Amino acid sequence: MNEKYPNSTTLAPIMQANLKEIRETIGWTSEDLATLIGVTKQTISNLETNRSKLSKLHYIAIRTVVEFEIEQLQQVDPDRARRAKLLMSFLSESPDIAKQSGKHLDLDQIQETSQLIAKSNSYASAEKIIRSFAPIFATGVISLLMKSANTRKK
């Protein structure tokens, strides 16, 4: 059976460590996200502070509502949608980027980058943040990430 999110065991910890940044980039409060996936605000808080582990069910629910929201944002706030798409691409592809560049997957560095993207006020500044990591990762890999973020299905 083909899963829509086959790398959930690898990506769930990355998503959990960056859940607040994902939420903030999209413009959601913890209560907004909780309502959308059918949990309490406390559950979101526990996930964001690592007091609870992100289950596969939560992972799939969050990915689904995030992807849907990015699609909706395309109509009303395309720049925010592009930043959210870039962040999700960065988080989703970080394990492959690290592997292709022969680097260890550094979750702290990923989180620092996602925090900067979440605080950015435009896609252009978010793109500069990603490009600033070209010396750390292979430049070609960063180019692939940027291309992926620009062409990835909404």
UniProtKB/TrEMBL annotation:
<protein>
    <submittedName>
        <fullName>Helix-turn-helix transcriptional regulator</fullName>
    </submittedName>
</protein>
<dbReference type="InterPro" id="IPR001387">
    <property type="entry name" value="Cro/C1-type_HTH"/>
</dbReference>
<dbReference type="Pfam" id="PF01381">
    <property type="entry name" value="HTH_3"/>
</dbReference>
<feature type="domain" description="HTH cro/C1-type">
    <location>
        <begin position="19"/>
        <end position="73"/>
    </location>
</feature>
<dbReference type="GO" id="GO:0003677">
    <property type="term" value="F:DNA binding"/>
</dbReference>
<dbReference type="InterPro" id="IPR010982">
    <property type="entry name" value="Lambda_DNA-bd_dom_sf"/>
</dbReference>
